[in-house]
Design a protein that fits this description.
The protein is of the alpha/beta class. The chain has nine helices and eleven strands. Strand 9 and strand 10 form a beta hairpin. One of its GO terms (biological process) is pyridoxal 5'-phosphate salvage.
């Protein structure tokens, strides 16, 4: 592809009308990073599901194949395919089909295996779904699980932190054996002062850690903020470690701004006002 040509991503996520996560995070972050982003919604909700009751939910499984069929007919090509929350078991197979239809030698498939946190599988999913997500990750170039999702993918018991480097290194290597050449593990910490991510590049056999000051509280949607910023770095030609560093810093800055404002933690983090700093990191301004 011509270097001057704009990069394009297919983002396969749900859309929550209120609450910053999934497409309402991925679209603005990737677009601000200069990347054309095409949305394939998996479900539409009135709000996200984290800590909010009474939300509406519309499953879009039946719409997904017609979406991708039309895109294929138009010969739309993507520099990356980025999947996140999937709304049904059948969608796992649909996304695999999408990968097969749109994979090229020079593009990237990134899977954020959204299915759990804090040691628990999300209530809308079953253990069977976790096994299906593993088969999706086998087809990815890069996966971005948290430690709960890593345990589910590996069929191992979840271990609460703080962690040791030996444990994290072991998890990274086992995840890479599923198929992806690169793994980014989020929620990594070795003490109560710092939190961040660990990266593993199979081709270089290199493990790196990117940690920043831990901010009190639990904030919804930060995984989507992180993965979207990570992909923004990769598609702006930064390597894995530097992209993870950019994503950790951007996510932490968004959390800190939200913490200082004392807004309702359920509604997501203020990533919007951190975008200028992200663009500086990406050397776009």
């Amino acid at each position: 592809m011509n270097k001057e040509q704009q990069k394009r991503v297919a983002a396969i996520h749900d859309l929550s009308g209120f609450g910053k996560c999934s497409l309402t995070v991925a679209l603005p972050i990737l677009s601000a990073a200069g990347i054309e982003t095409s949305a394939l919604p998996t479900a539409i909700l009135s709000t996200h599901t984290g800590g909010i009751l009474g939300y509406t939910y519309r499953d879009l499984t039946e719409d997904m194949r017609p979406f991708m069929k039309h895109w294929k007919e138009l010969d739309i090509r993507f520099d990356a395919v980025y999947s996140g929350f999937l709304g049904s078991f059948e969608q796992l197979d649909i996304v695999k089909e999408f990968f097969s239809l749109f994979k090229r030698e020079d593009n990237l498939i990134l899977v954020d295996p959204v299915m759990g946190d804090n040691g628990e599988l999300y209530k809308i999913f079953t253990p069977k779904f976790a096994k299906g997500m593993r088969s999706l990750c086998e087809r990815a170039d890069i996966i971005v699980p948290n430690l709960t999702e890593a345990a589910l993918l590996l069929g191992e018991p979840y271990q609460a932190g703080p962690y040791t480097k030996a444990y994290i290194d072991g998890i990274l290597h086992k995840l890479s054996q599923l198929g992806p050449k690169q793994v980014v593990l989020t929620g990594v910490y070795f003490d109560e002062k710092e939190l961040g991510a660990a990266t593993f590049d199979m081709e270089r056999n290199a493990t790196e850690y990117v940690l920043t000051e831990k901010i009190p509280g639990y904030y919804h949607g930060t995984g989507d903020v992180f993965a979207s910023a990570l992909l923004s770095g990769l598609l702006n030609n930064f390597n894995l470690e530097r992209s993870a560093e950019i994503a950790v810093r951007f996510t932490a800055e968004s959390i800190l701004r939200t913490f200082k404002a004392q807004t309702d933690y359920r509604f997501g983090v203020n990533f919007e006002q951190s975008i200028p700093d992200l663009l500086k990191e990406l050397k776009l301004i």
